[in-house]
Amino acid sequence: MHAVVVESLLIGVVYMALVLAFRDHIAIIYTTDVDLQCAVSKITRLLGLTMVLNTVQPVLSGVAVGGGWQGLVASINLGCYYILGLLLGYPLGYKFNLGVRAAQASAPVQKWDGTDETKPLLQENQQA
Fold it and tell me: Which regions span the lipid bilayer (predicted)?
């Protein structure tokens, strides 16, 4: 078990290093909007950290489920979400202003869903 966890951790660290190394260029794959690229580059440290955690957690969870501890794993997952996620997420996001800057990303999203005075691509095709 220890070898699998260490291997998974190393894979996560490698991907975290890649994300951090290319933090200013990683959003170019998905968007050409400069404001959105800047917003993504500001949260890449969080992305890297969650990548490491998400490489180790499934391995540990799978070992626990394989050992017959499904109830304990479900309780831990729910506890982490409701206790850690919600109770820490609210003050960090709203009281300490550490939330994601959604206003910067809203303009491209509005273009995608057609609420910026332009017609969506499919709507134009249907009228023709």
Answer: 6-22, 43-65, 71-92
Q: What three-state secondary structure class fits 90? A: helix
Is residue 114 within 8 A of residue 120, CB to CB? The reply is yes
pLDDT tens track for 74-98: 888 888 888 888 888 778 777 877 6
User: Has this prediction a pTM greater than 0.70?
Assistant: no
Q: Contact, 52 vs 16, CB < 8 A?
A: yes
Instruction: Report yes or no on 121 lying in a domain.
Output: no
Kindly state whether residue 122 falls inside one of the protein's structural domains.
no
**What residue numbers bound the domain in which 41 lies?**
2-116
Dihedral (C-alpha) 77, 80, 82, 88: value to the nearest 10 degrees?
-160
**Distance from C-alpha of 62 to C-alpha of 72, rounded to nearest angstrom:** 12
- What does the pLDDT read at residue 128? 47
Q: What is the pLDDT of residue 69?
A: 87
Q: Within a domain: residue 124?
A: no
